[in-house]
Amino acid sequence: MRPILLNPGPVSLSEGVRQAVAQMDLCHREPEFFELQDEVIQGLVDIYQCDPAQWTAVLVGGSGTSAMEAMIASLVPDTANVLVLENGVYGERLSRIANIYGIRHQALEAAWGDKIDLKALADLLSSGEFSHVLAVHHETTTGRLNPVDDIASLCTELGVLLLLDAVSSFAAESIPFEQESLQAIAATANKCLHGIPGLAIVLCRRELLQQDIEPRSLSLHLPGWAEQQAKQSTPFTPPVNALLGLAQALKELNKQGGWEARRSRYRNLAGQVAETCQKLGVKQWLPAEVSSCVLRSYHLPDGMTYNELHDGLKQQGFIIYAGQGDLAAQLFRISTMGEISDYDMARLVQALQTVIAG
Ligand SMILES: Cc1ncc(COP(=O)(O)O)c(C=O)c1O
């Protein structure tokens, strides 16, 4: 039996997506590919009913980090002064990327898992010094869902542009696209969208692609990709099979009721895991109210190492995820993204009981 992936991407695939990925050999310079590319772009813009006159999706070969990097390198001008919100690995990664590209920036830091201080954010933005905010929506390090509505409202009020890492939330959590401040989000095919790895996505306002920014990278320069994609072309070889899979995954998302239905499903599954863990005396690392629907983190069971827990569950057909950095010794993470059936969930509950309670 295939293992069920409870790590935060790549996810367990539906049978439909698995077949779509390998359905045909397709040359990326043929009209069939360009139809597929148009379908995927349109499908991504439609998930949150963004106005296609204002928004487009740019597809780039790469991982979630490529989406973050492409967004920052090609959409933040040299004149910018950026405030980066950090409360985990991915917030820190945003700063690292800004650093690599020589973009002026400052961080508003919180400890991993702690909340972003909105009062401090308001004070910093009120100074008028910052042109852009870079933030992570769902900080996968701990499962904390950062308050993107409050952040976007503050940015709109104070005339600051917001670029969001939504790599582990796009298609499953609410994103305030109606806020003027929100200019672009980074995403990937292989998380809440239920596709395969290899496709980085930046959904952005068309206007932003018109800025006169000197390319800082050849292969991650979004205006170059967008220009070619708009003309039914592509600058470089795209991950063709990832697009085949994503087209099918988008159809399945729509059929299942869109992002809100996906959020309900994830919440339900996460709730079942949390309930089982609670019965087994395993404490959540963050309260459910501040956790995303996608992933929750838990203290390691008393007297058990992560490897013991991981290996026990792997033997039963489930792959869980370790904590990052210093958190590795304290917690484990369970994501409920991907194609997880009620039967899989019933088996997982059994497996947790067997491995933790013996
Ligand atoms: C919020 C967030 N941003 C960025 C990334 C980086 O994605 P990748 O590992 O595909 O480069 C991840 C990966 O888990 C993530 O959760």
C-alpha geometry:
globular
Question: How much of the sequence is in beta strands?
Answer: 15-25%
**Which stretches of 5+ consecutive residues score pLDDT under 50?**
none
Number of strands: 14
Main sheet properties: 7 strands, mixed
Would you kindly provide a written description of the structure presented here, covering whatever features stand out?
The structure is a single chain. By secondary structure, the chain is an alpha/beta fold. The chain is 39% helix and 17% strand. It has 11 helices and 14 strands. The protein has helices at residues 15-21, 31-46, 64-75, 89-100, 118-126, 148-157, 222-230, 240-255, 258-279, 306-315, 342-357, and strands at 4-5, 55-61, 82-86, 105-109, 132-136, 138-139, 144-145, 161-165, 182-188, 199-205, 295-299, 318-319, 321-322, 331-335. The strands form 4 sheets. Strands 2-10-9-8-5-3-4 form a 7-stranded mixed β-sheet, with helices on both faces. It has a 3-stranded antiparallel β-sheet with strand order 11-14-13, covered by helices on one side. Helix 1 runs antiparallel to helix 8 and helix 5 (118-126) runs parallel beside helix 6 (148-157). The longest helix has 22 residues, at 258-279. The mean pLDDT is 97. The structure holds pyridoxal-5'-phosphate.
